[in-house]
Amino acid sequence: MQTGATPVTTYFVFLLIVLSTMAGCSFVQHDTSISVDVIKTSSAVNFHDSSAVKSRILQQFNEWRETPCKIGGLSKHGIDCSGFVYVTFRSKLGCNVPRTTELQVKTGRKVDRNNLRVGDLVFFQTSLFYNHVGIYLGDSEFLHASSSRGVIISNLNETYWKKRYWTARRICR
To answer: What is the mean pLDDT of each run of 10 residues along the chain (173 residues)?
Structure first.
C-alpha cells in the first residue's frame, strides 16, 4: 500500500498556496457595485488641486523608485501593487484606503478612462484570475509596483497596459 500524497495532490496543494498568497494584490473580484468607504485624515491633500496631488505622488515615487515587487509586502524591501496604493494614499495623500485590489476596486466611484484625473486608481486585468492597480498621474501615465521592474511609472497607451485596462475609480473626493 502506498502512503503519502500523489504528485497530482501535491501539485494542487502547491497551486492553492501560491494562489492564496497572491490574493492580497490582485485576486479578481468583478462585483464593483458594493462601495467601500475611505477615511480622510486631517493631513489630506486637496484632491481638486491636481498639481498638489501629483507633486505628493511623485515624492512617493522618488522615495520608492524601483522597490521590488513582493506579494503581500509593505516595505522598501518589497511591496505589491495594492500595498503601494495603500501606503501612498495613507502617507502622502492623507487618505486611508483598503489594502487589497478586491476592496480598492469597490472604493469611491467609477470613472471613464477619458475622464481620468490625477490621483484616480486605474485597474488592469493581467490574467484570468488576477488584477493590477496603479495611481493615475495625468498624460496617460500611472505609478505602480510592477511585478517585474518594481515601483515605476508606465503609460496607459503601452500595448501591454492598453490591452489589459479594466476600470478606474475616483476616491477621497
So the answer is: 56 42 44 53 84 98 96 97 98 96 96 98 93 98 97 98 98 89
- The CA distance from 1 to 3, in Å, is 7
CA 171 to chain centre: 13
Q: Are 39 and 96 in contact (CB under 8 A)?
A: yes
Region of residue 128 (phi > 0: left; psi between -120 and 50: alpha; otherwise: beta): alpha
Catalytic residues: 81, 132, 144
In a 3-state reduction of DSSP, which class is residue 92? coil
pLDDT of residue 9: 52
Cell of 71: 506579494
- What topology does CATH give the domain 7-170? endopeptidase fold (from Nostoc punctiforme) (3.90.1720)
pLDDT at 6: 66
Global confidence as pTM: 0.80
| CA-based nearest residue to 72, from 26, 122, 39 | 26
| CA atoms within 13 Å, Cβ hemisphere of 135 | 30
Query: Which class for 100: exposed (0-12), middle (13-18), buried (19 or more C-beta within 10 A)?
Result: buried
